[in-house]
Amino acid sequence: MSYIRACWKKYPDRKRLYLLVAMAAVTLFRLWMTAAQPIAFLPGQEDDDTVFLAHAASIIRGHWLGVYTQNTLVKGAFYSLFVAGVHFTGIPLLLAQQLLYVFACVIFIVAIRKLIPRRAILAVSYCVVLFNPGSYTATATARVIRDFTCASFAFLAVSSMVAIYARVGERYTAWKPWAVLLGLSLAATLLTREDSAWVLPLIVVASLLCAVMTFFKLRGKPRVKSLAVLVLPFVLVGVCSAVIAGANAYAYGKFVTNEYADANFINAYSALCRIDGGKWMPNVPVTKAARQAAYAVSPAFRELEPYLEGQKMAIFVNADDQETHGTFFTWNLRNAVAAAGYCKNAATASAYYKRLAAELNAAFDSGKLKSYPKTISVGMLSPWRGAYLVPTVKKTLYAIWYDVTFKDCSPYPIISDPMPAGDDIYQAVTNEVGSWDKTSDFADTSKETPFVRTSGYMLYQGAIRFNHQKLTFLNLVTIGYQKVFPILFVIACGCYVFLTVYLLVGLFRKRKLRFGPHWLVCTGVFLTFFLRVLIFAYGFVSSEVPIIPQYMVSAYFQMAFFVCFTIGTTILVLRKRIEAVKPRELTR
Question: Which are the contacts of 250, defined by CB distance < 8 A and separation ≥ 6?
Fold first, then answer.
């Protein structure tokens, strides 16, 4: 104890120490509150939770992603690796995911400290991102689902890129750790969700800008080494992707990270979406008429007819118009290919898709099939059409409002499926105990429904009510964000306009652009947020992908980054202007 007191007295910056202790206390409090969230056991989610859980269980047993099926390479493999890695540590999965997010918040503050060196601004920004409701909305954070983890990795990647940009011109050793962190977090993002390319424009453009700045600022070996460090993140992404693809090649015979990286699958799906069946439906990528036309010209596709039509696929067919809407068609297609016997391994499936694409494209060339113009396919989403433009713009504005207001965010847990047989593997893999049910052995003492564990040991009544009080507190925080954050977002947009005008005036007067880097960061982060929201809007319009907190969680974090950094930068600019005016007044 005397040693601790001595160290305390010798610490030169007592205020900084107090602030660090306070931030640590806030962080522990935040983790303690979110620990009240139970995991939702959803064995019935065969295309989401169950896939990740089964893959993680196979990795734990040393069998990579398990026996090959049509769903094995649909999802990125990294989240299953993350779940398996957490299993070996003995840490509960939900706690591990929250720790990852807390780490991302800390990295965010350290990254922007070079540009915003004011402790008060950094402390407030840390609290704002730490208690972001997107980080504990149950649909994204209390399931065996990849969205929250992927969003945390994307947050890390963007923060690391900003840190590198802020430190360009210094010795490369000062930002080499940031380059490593950028490479690993970017690889994790891209290998967790196959549609994570939205983060790449910021990373690529910022890296090129840093390379240009390095080229002109440095000479000789420092220049070469610094440029090499800038390339390092992309090398790491390539290496990580090659490792995943190599494991897939060894296990399933195809060197791909996931099926959406397979050119044969993309070509086959794009060809099906090009078929003009006579009536275009905006949210139906392949209409029934288009399928009938394809059966007539493609022997490969004709093999799938018994499985794509009739009652066998009724679960994926809309009852009103008998069409397969949105992304469900890709699941129908895979299921049909598997039923036809072409899913023995990834190589067999890929060969089938290659044959299907060749037959359809030959029919287009010969005129046997009518074709829409060739367009860009975006994963499972319908290819772009000009008619999507106006609805996408409208839905983008709605999605921004949805994101800014944290609509539908709630910390209250999702009710587990009543499938006790599935609980065992959930508990074994995730290190989480039990599931939750609506029923209660105790009297209802609150406005909300109390929760009781129905498997594992029974919790005491007081413990249940205390956890419920913690969830109620998080819900109050969420309500506070819903009311205050729209105002902060409007203020941040106003600050961005102010910074833009301030920068243009500085250019006109040929002043030193001290806050030019800050403006570029604000612009890059906002465009990243906007791109993510735009993809959501397009997905809703073209493929009926719902706009829900589970999918919006990555946009929540980028939005908070933009708001905190833009307002913080504006405060610095105003302080600088005030400090510049005061000496003039004293000299009068």
Answer: 64
